[in-house]
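pinned: reference chain
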Amino acid sequence: MESDPTKKKAIFRISNLSKIYRTGEVSVRALNDVTLDMTEGDMTVLLGPSGSGKSTFLNIVGGLDRATSGQVFFKDRELTACTERQLTKYRRDHVGFVFQFYNLIPSLTARENVHLVTEIAKNPMSAEDALELVGLQNRADHFPAQLSGGEQQRVAIARAIAKQPEVLLCDEPTGALDSKTGVLVLEALARVNESLGTTTALITHNAGIQNIAHRVISFIDGRISDDHRNETRIAPSEVVW
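pinned: its structure tokens
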């Protein structure tokens, strides 16, 4: 039985978060007064159309972008008050990122791509263990060009989790993949969440993916339009693409 989420700690506390992008005289409000807590160990799916604010939200929580106003706390640290140097350390020590495009180094093997992260992490797992967790232990010595798109994405996940981050932030990780390959990637993310307890947030346009998550947050026009927990969850293999 799943533990009571109310007894878990909030890993993020976000209050009145807004982000305005300005180009000349044009202002675009990407986030508009967003307030929520995110619970340790949850897998959260962020839904919404393009331009709804979900990527901006993820980038601010991940320390890649700054808010115009409002506050973001990671545990007891106020990220919105951090210097650039402090944000860089926060990203390095606590956050793993997975994007739609894999950003692997072509001249390095899967193992070597993952090992890049373990060299700078405080408490890394081995590259071999990270690849095993995403089901690619037998492809460790292959170069990206020798791997399928789904395999490359799973190497990217292994690279992100090898430093054992507390938070894994994924922006459209299945966006460039077909359904069969996408399921393998979702299975890898679910395995990481369950095995390591990594707090995971996943942006997707595919509404079917929401059913694998503990929690689903929908964005429209920079605001949260819906926020609910799934009473029952499905396996990634059951997702309708």
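why pinned: The longest strand covers residues 10-23. The beta strands are 10-23, 26-39, 43-47, 69-74, 77-78, 95-98, 167-171, 199-203, 215-220, 223-229.
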